[in-house]
């Protein structure tokens, strides 16, 4: 059985992730108390389900604290297990709850929304490092759907997945980054009127950046640093390493760097490349 567990903060996009998996043919269960997880997995396995997704979060009560031990127990059995933790910055969560007018699960009595978010973050902090961490702040729903599809496409137990992520510093540091590189000091294609509407994936931007000696020098320095330390991260038995590269807007320089490094390290580990500030290419599906 392939089991995907989803957790994270309220308002971070768990319902979107679960819907992606439902559309992909997974048997999905939302808002399951962690206490019932072993029984559910056993029952579904007996009934012959081969793909299941379960959302467990603060709505299930105090039993969510049992999840780390339950994951260890589940990994000892004959199943493929992936754990996805969705997160978002406080200001993003406040905006989403304000727009949807939904009540936060911990907004009880005189508690404010900000206090409820802070309390939830505290209660779930031990879950953040249990699997793949995605910061959904400033991310469009279609982009999140694409990232979830990439995540479930990874084969569990196949070693380290190296994820290169571009972002714009004006949107803030991504919460899911393990390593952060700042390329704002490099020449900016934004100031060229012909390059401004393009992205770091477009050939004219590549040609502009690769004509700058300082771009090539920083690119090679970052690649050398990652190459030197990647074996240590692999020995640490990590499943995911997220390397974030930031420029001002997240459209040109950081995108170019993420794409280049993704190609460079394809032979070293399973590689994913994602861009926080530009939309994924259209797939043609509705």
From TrEMBL:
<keyword id="KW-0067">ATP-binding</keyword>
<dbReference type="InterPro" id="IPR053930">
    <property type="entry name" value="RapZ-like_N"/>
</dbReference>
<feature type="binding site">
    <location>
        <begin position="57"/>
        <end position="60"/>
    </location>
    <ligand>
        <name>GTP</name>
    </ligand>
</feature>
<keyword id="KW-0547">Nucleotide-binding</keyword>
<feature type="domain" description="RapZ-like N-terminal">
    <location>
        <begin position="1"/>
        <end position="154"/>
    </location>
</feature>
<dbReference type="Pfam" id="PF03668">
    <property type="entry name" value="RapZ-like_N"/>
</dbReference>
<feature type="binding site">
    <location>
        <begin position="8"/>
        <end position="15"/>
    </location>
    <ligand>
        <name>ATP</name>
    </ligand>
</feature>
<dbReference type="GO" id="GO:0005524">
    <property type="term" value="F:ATP binding"/>
</dbReference>
<keyword id="KW-0342">GTP-binding</keyword>
<dbReference type="InterPro" id="IPR005337">
    <property type="entry name" value="RapZ-like"/>
</dbReference>
<dbReference type="InterPro" id="IPR027417">
    <property type="entry name" value="P-loop_NTPase"/>
</dbReference>
<dbReference type="Pfam" id="PF22740">
    <property type="entry name" value="PapZ_C"/>
</dbReference>
<protein>
    <submittedName>
        <fullName>RNase adapter RapZ</fullName>
    </submittedName>
</protein>
<dbReference type="GO" id="GO:0005525">
    <property type="term" value="F:GTP binding"/>
</dbReference>
<feature type="domain" description="RapZ C-terminal">
    <location>
        <begin position="161"/>
        <end position="278"/>
    </location>
</feature>
<dbReference type="InterPro" id="IPR053931">
    <property type="entry name" value="RapZ_C"/>
</dbReference>
